[in-house]
Design a protein that fits this description.
Subcellular location: Cell envelope
Structural class: mainly alpha
CATH class of the largest domain: Mainly Alpha
InterPro entries: Cyt_c-like_dom, Cyt_c-like_dom_sf, Cytochrome_c_Peroxidase/MauG, Di-haem_cyt_c_peroxidsae, MauG-like
Organism: Pseudomonas shahriarae
Number of domains: 2
Bound molecules: heme C
CATH architecture of the largest domain: Orthogonal Bundle
Order of helices and strands: HHHHEEEEEHHHHHHHHEHEHHHHH
CATH topology of the largest domain: Cytochrome Bc1 Complex, Chain D, domain 2
Strand content: under 5%
Number of helices: 18
CATH superfamily of the largest domain: Cytochrome c-like domain
Oligomer: single chain
Shape: globular
Protein name: His-Xaa-Ser system-associated MauG-like protein
Largest sheet: 3 strands, antiparallel
Number of strands: 7
Distance between the termini: 65 Å
Helix content: 25-40%
Domain Cytochrome c: 60-175, 291-438
Strand order of the largest sheet: 3-4-5
Length: 463
C-alpha cells in the first residue's frame, strides 16, 4: 500500500517537473533574451530580410544544361566536365587547395595522381545560390561582372556575343576556353598527348595567343561539335539537336549563348539552397540558433567587423579587398604571383584584391582562400586580423615570399585594422555562427544527376 502511494507521488512530481521543463523551453522559444534583443537591432540596422526562394523546376532548358554540365564532350580532350571540379557531394567544389584540370582523371584527391595534369592556381568556387541577382561579380577577381551601366563585363570586352540572359550564363561560357581547365593545348604547345590536346576546338589558322580570337573560334567549333549540321549528324549530335530545340523552341540557329544560358539555368536550379538556421532565426524562430551561434552573430555584425565586407543575404559585398594572403609561388600571373582584381582592370591599385567570398555553406567548402592556403576556418578568420603567422610560415623555404611580404601588406585593406583582436573563444563562436549558414540544395541529388549523357561517356556522371 505504502509502496503504491510513493509510486503515485513520484509520478506526480515527475509530471510537475515535466510541465515545468516544457514551460521553461516554451519561455526560451518565445521570449527574446538579451542577445536576441541586440540581434533584432542588428537585423533592423542592416535591413536583413528573410530570404525568398525563387520557384524553379527542371524544364527543357535546365535539362539541356544538365547534359552539358556532365558531358565531357564539352572539353577539348574529353576528360573534364563541370562536375569534375564542381562536385555536388563535396559542396560543389573539389576539396583541393587548387583545381586540377585537363590531363587528369577522377575527382578530388584522385586528380593529384596524374603527372600530366595541369594545375589551375586558384581554389574552386562553389555554386550555391549563384542564380540570385545579388551575385553581381563572378570569379575570384570578378572578371565577369555587371558593369556600371548594367552591361556584362568579361574578358571578351565588346566581343562578348549578344544573347546571354544573365551574368551566370556569361561566366559559364569561360571554363570551356581555358586551356588548363577544359580546352586543352595545341600540338605545338606541348599538347600532343591525347589527354591534353584540344582536338578540333581551335582551328590551325587561329593564333592561339590571341585570347579573343581563340575564344570565339572555340565557341563556334563547340557548337559544331555538339550539333553537326542538320544534314550530317552523328546520333549524339541529333540527340543534342533535339535537346536544344526543346529548350529553345523558337530558334533553329544556335550559338554559345544557348549553351551558357542552359548551363546557368541548370546551375541556378541544382544549387539553390534551402533556408538555413540563420534564415529561420531572421524569420522569428528564436530557438533556431544556439547561444554560441547568437554570440558569434553578435561578433560577426559587431566588433568583428565581418559584415563590412561579408554583407547582404549572401554575405558578400561583391567588391574587392586585400587581406594579404601569401602567394606560395603559384600565382596565375607573371612571376608566380596572383594579382587578382588588377588583372581584370589593369589598375595597379587593384593588386592582390579578391572578391569577398560569399559565406553560405562556407563550412563545407574547405580549404579556403583564393589559393586554398587556409586549411581551417580558424586560420582563415585569424588571418584577417593578424596576417603575420601565416605570412611568416609561408616564407620558410620560399625566399620570394619574403621579398613580396611588404607589397602584400601595403595592399591590405585598412578596414581590417578595425577588427577587434578576437580571442579563440570569439573565433569559435563566429565559426558556430557560420555553421548556422549551412543548408542543403532544394533539389535532391537524384533529380540533379542525369542517368546518361548524349556522348555516352557516362562514367563522368559523379555525385
Ligand atoms: C578544372 C576544374 C574546373 C572545371 C572543369 C570547371 N571549373 Fe568552374 N571553377 C573552377 C575554378 C578554379 C574556379 C575559380 C576560378 C577563378 O575565380 O579564377 C571556378 C569558378 C567558376 C564559377 C564562378 C563562381 C563564382 O562564385 O564566382 C563559375 C560560374 C563556374 N566555375 C562555372 C563552371 C562551369 C559552367 C563549368 C563547366 C562548363 C566549370 N566551371 C568547369 C574550376 C573548374
Ligand atoms: C576588408 C573586407 C573583409 C572583412 C572586414 C572580412 N573579410 Fe573575410 N574575406 C575577405 C576577402 C577579400 C577574402 C578572400 C581573400 C583571398 O582569398 O585572397 C575573405 C575570406 C574569408 C573567408 C574564407 C572564405 C572562402 O570561401 O575561402 C572566411 C571564412 C572569412 N573571410 C570570414 C570572415 C570573418 C569571420 C570576418 C570577421 C572577423 C571577415 N571575414 C572579415 C574580406 C573581408
Amino acid at each position: 500500500m505504502l509502496i503504491a502511494w510513493i509510486d503515485f507521488d513520484m509520478m506526480k512530481w515527475k509530471l510537475l517537473f515535466f510541465i515545468f521543463l516544457s514551460w521553461i523551453s516554451h519561455l526560451q522559444a518565445s521570449e527574446p533574451d538579451h542577445k536576441d534583443l541586440i540581434l533584432r537591432k542588428v537585423l533592423t540596422a542592416y535591413r536583413i530580410e528573410p530570404v525568398t526562394i525563387t520557384p524553379t523546376y527542371m524544364g527543357a532548358k535546365e535539362k539541356l544544361g544538365q547534359m552539358l554540365f556532365f558531358d565531357p564532350i564539352m572539353g577539348g580532350p574529353n576528360n573534364t566536365t563541370c562536375a569534375t571540379c564542381h562536385v555536388r557531394s563535396k559542396g560543389s567544389v573539389d576539396g583541393l587547395p587548387m583545381a586540377v584540370g585537363i590531363g587528369s582523371s577522377g575527382v578530388g584527391e584522385q586528380r593529384l595522381e596524374s603527372p600530366d595534369a595541369f594545375v589551375i592556381p586558384r581554389n574552386v568556387l562553389p555554386f550555391f545560390n549563384r542564380g540570385e541577382s545579388s551575385f553581381t561579380a563572378l570569379f575570384w577577381d570578378g572578371r565577369v561582372q555587371i558593369g556600371e551601366n548594367g552591361s556584362f563585363e568579361s574578358p571578351l570586352g565588346n566581343k562578348l556575343p549578344k544573347g546571354f540572359e544573365n551574368l551566370l550564363a556569361v561566366a559559364a561560357s569561360f571554363p570551356q576556353v581555358e586551356p588548363d581547365e577544359m580546352l586543352g593545348r595545341s600540338v605545338r604547345r606541348g599538347g600532343e598527348k591525347q589527354a591534353t590536346y584540344h582536338a578540333d576546338l581551335v582551328d590551325k589558322t587561329v593564333d592561339p595567343d590571341n585570347f579573343k580570337e581563340r575564344t570565339l573560334n572555340v565557341y563556334s567549333n563547340l557548337v559544331k561539335r555538339l550539333l553537326g549540321t542538320p544534314s550530317a549528324s552523328t546520333p549524339m549530335q541529333s540527340e543534342y539537336r533535339k535537346l536544344f530545340q526543346a529548350a529553345y523552341p523558337v530558334t533553329s540557329e544556335f550559338d554559345i549563348t544557348h549553351i551558357g544560358n542552359a548551363l546557368a539555368a541548370y546551375i541556378s536550379l541544382a544549387f539553390q539552397l534551402k533556408p538555413a538556421a540563420w534564415d529561420n532565426y531572421v524569420k522569428g524562430d528564436l530557438s533556431a540558433l544556439s547561444q554560441q551561434q547568437k554570440e558569434g552573430a553578435m561578433i560577426f555584425f559587431g566588433k568583428g567587423r565581418c559584415v563590412v565586407c561579408h554583407s547582404g543575404n549572401e554575405f558578400s559585398d561583391f567588391k574587392y579587398h586585400g587581406i594579404a594572403v601569401p602567394q606560395l609561388d603559384v600565382g596565375k600571373h607573371g612571376g608566380y604571383l596572383d594579382y587578382g582584381r588588377a588583372k581584370a582592370t589593369g589598375l595597379a591599385i587593384d593588386r592582390f584584391q579578391f572578391r569577398t567570398p560569399p559565406l553560405r555553406n562556407v563550412t563545407r567548402t574547405g580549404p579556403w582562400g583564393h589559393n586554398g592556403l587556409f586549411t581551417t576556418l580558424e586560420e582563415a578568420i585569424n588571418h584577417h586580423f593578424n596576417p603575420i603567422p601565416l605570412m611568416f610560415a609561408a616564407q620558410k623555404g620560399r625566399p620570394r615570399e619574403a621579398e613580396i611580404a611588404g607589397r602584400l601588406l601595403s595592399y591590405r585593406s585598412p578596414i581590417l585594422a578595425e577588427i577587434y583582436p578576437m580571442a579563440p573563444s570569439d573565433v569559435r563562436a563566429v565559426i558556430a555562427f557560420l555553421e548556422a549558414l549551412q543548408s542543403d540544395p532544394i533539389l535532391s541529388s537524384d533529380e540533379a544527376l542525369p542517368k546518361s549523357v548524349p556522348s555516352g561517356m557516362n562514367q563522368f556522371i559523379v555525385e
